[in-house]
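Re: the pair you flagged

First of the two:
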Amino acid sequence: MRDLVVFLAVSFGLAALLDFWFLSVRGSVADLYALALYGSVWGLLRMYAPTAGALLAIKASRRSVVEELKAYLGLGRRALVYFLLAPLVVYLAVGIYLAVGLAVGVVD
């Protein structure tokens, strides 16, 4: 039960802090490109809030984070790298979409 409470507190707390940060920055930024950059940073960090909550819950229960990740992923360090990089595929797809859209002239 303690692990669940730590996970929920860290995940939701970190997400709320990130949301508050982005909302406070959003009101003071006039440049749309800077706002898009802040939004991308916010989205990237927001995706990893549950991961941070899970890792801190494991650490709070006095278990080895490395051993738990190995047991969960079933592989080694390579699988962990892929797990952490997987959300970046979305940003790659959006980047390709924007590059093609700008080249064709459908995105301004």
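Second of the two:
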Amino acid sequence: MPEQNDRDSKRIKREASARKRAREAFDRSQIEAVLSAAGIKEAKPEAIDAISALMEERIAQIAARSAEAAEDREERQLSAAAVAVAAQREAESRRAAAEIR
């Protein structure tokens, strides 16, 4: 259970950090430019805020999932390395036991 709590805590921190980066990734003028390019010459500030919030959330989710996937890959690599070391030690123990006989 403590491991799950630690993982949840890391995920929450990752998502908060990703949201902060997402907010800094674009500004209102960029959203207005995209809307203008799509033929929407004037948009209500509330609509721009809603689009901004949606973009921030999606970017944050993608970034958090990406970071979590990288963490999972690292954990798998560490687990594989631990298994390899254990197998090597077991083989060395068997060789040593065979030499003693």
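The chain has three helices and no strands.

-B.
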